[in-house]
Amino acid sequence: MKIERLSTNKIRIFLTFDDLSERGIQKEDMWREIPKVHELFSEMMDQAYTELGFDPTGPLAVEVFALPAQGMVVIVTRGKYDVPSIGVNLEDELDEEVYEMEVTLEQSDTIMYAFSDFEHLIELAHLIAPLVDEDGKLYYYKDRYILHLESKDLEQGTFNSLIALLAEYGEATSVTLAVLDEYAKVVMPEHAISTIVTHFAPQN
């Protein structure tokens, strides 16, 4: 579980599928009202408070983005209390440890993997070239190469094979396209896999 602050009132939490499975939670459970999900959310808020000093009191808007290979990105935005009406004790309201959550869930077709060594990416490219038609975009961001692919047109068997290879050579990352487009260097704007295969031979 990785937590980062986006602004004073907003944080982003990256949950891998291992984070979920360790707690007995399936991806589909994330929008269900079950105790395990509430426990996970409380754990996330405790960690956010400990690591970032993020205070989760008050109404919270929770956006859950399900990524096909990496896990889930949870965006938590803290709202503000309405001014209490006369006769309402605000302290009593704050003492109740109940999070007011408005949860929305979105699916994403984006696959994003990071590679610290370009040689690993070369080896991977030669293996996955037959699997991908739309063969991606390559960025360089914070000393790592980040490969962006889309999974929307892949059959399930092809998708599983692709993810297995990506996980073997790279590491799933929660960085978003918006961040990459603004802050990363674009190495190959399109056809990244076929370009690598054409110009670089694997070492082995």
From TrEMBL:
HAMAP family: MecA. This is Adapter protein MecA. The gene is mecA. Belongs to the MecA family. InterPro entries: MecA_C_sf, Neg-reg_MecA. Homodimer. Enables the recognition and targeting of unfolded and aggregated proteins to the ClpC protease or to other proteins involved in proteolysis. The N-terminal domain probably binds unfolded/aggregated proteins; the C-terminal domain interacts with ClpC. PANTHER family: ADAPTER PROTEIN MECA, ADAPTER PROTEIN MECA 2. GO terms for molecular function: protein-macromolecule adaptor activity.
